[in-house]
Amino acid sequence: HPADFNMIEYCQRAQAALPQLREKGVARFLVVMNGRPSSCEKLAEMLDVPEEFEILSDPTGVAGRAFGVSRGFRPDDEALSPLLKVTVVGLGFGPPWMTLPAVLPGYFGDPKGKRGWIEQCLKQGQEAGRWPKVLEMDSDGNIIGNKFDDFPLVSGWGRRPFELATLRLQSLVGIQMKHWNDLKPVDDRCLSQLGGLTIVDNAGEALYSWVDRGLCDVPDMDEICEAL
Q1: Burial class (CB in 10 A: 0-12, 13-18, 19+), 128
Q2: pTM for the complete prediction?
Q3: pLDDT at position 94 over 90
Q4: Exposed, middle or buried: residue 18 (CB in 10 Å: 0-12, 13-18, 19+)?
Q5: Cβ-count burial 151-170 (b if 16+ within 10 Å, e if not)
Q6: Residue 95's pLDDT band (cuts 50, 70, 90)
């Protein structure tokens, strides 16, 4: 749904990788969001999603379930609160189990990781007024400094500790929490329902497919481009 971490990060990663995806022959981009049309439009506006991304509203999440995405923790247990279900998945205490493996690298960093897309998204968030602000930019909007460049010992890593976590904090505070009422799903099933991605050829055959296995467990766009 539009207020979901994974949905936000899908949009951020995909638009950062747009030139590479085009080079690989991806000609059309469809983004299905489990929310009202107004919620989908608001998220697209806040993230400066390019016009070539066709945003489709699916308030009940039926398309995702047909695709086979994870429905989260005990999705058919009506005795459990939907908020409890999403909290269990968000904390990594229940299936699917990949939340912690996806979240923790954002804090630990990765010497061989890539940070270009992260810096691009931090810049977009900072220009939109979201906190925290870690970049120094000149009057033309060019990045001339990054606080993570000053980290002792690890400043030369591909992805520095806390760098990705800072982007996610921007999304949490400046999008999810600040605009929850405008972005939240109208169907409680979509609170804990995760997402997925597929790339198909002209005949409709899947060239690449993915389903999320936890919070922040979204595919790496560089790996997708290498697979195409």
Answers
A1: middle
A2: 0.96
A3: no
A4: middle
A5: beeeeebebbbbbbbbbbbb
A6: confident
Residue 10 Ramachandran class (φ > 0 left, ψ -120 to 50 alpha, else beta): alpha
Joined together, the tokens standing for residue 168 give 């996610």
| Separation of alpha carbons 37 and 117, rounded Å | 27
Confidence at residue 180, expressed as pLDDT on a 0 to 100 scale: 98
CA 113 to chain CA mean position, Å: 17
Going by the DSSP 8-state scheme, the letter that residue 4 receives in this structure is: -
Is the four-CA dihedral 88, 8, 16, 116 of positive or negative sign? negative
Q: Which amino acid is at 11?
A: C
89 and 214 Cβ atoms separated by less than 8 Å: yes
Q: What angle do the packed helices 5-16 and 163-171 form, to 10 degrees? A: 120
**Residue whose C-alpha is closest to residue 222's, from 22, 53, 6, 21:** 21
- pLDDT, tens digit, for every residue of 191-210? 999 999 999 999 999 999 99
Q: Among the residues of 32-81, which ranges form H helices?
A: 37-46, 62-67
- Cα distance between residue 6 and residue 212, in whole Å: 8
Exposed, middle or buried, 35 (CB in 10 Å: 0-12/13-18/19+)?
A: buried
Q: What is the DSSP letter of 173?
A: I
How distant is the alpha carbon of residue 95 from its chain centre?
A: 19
- Residue pair 64/195 in contact (Cβ under 8 Å)? The answer is yes
Residue for token pair 């000053």: 150
DSSP letter string over 145-165? EEGGGG-TTTTTSSB-TTHHH
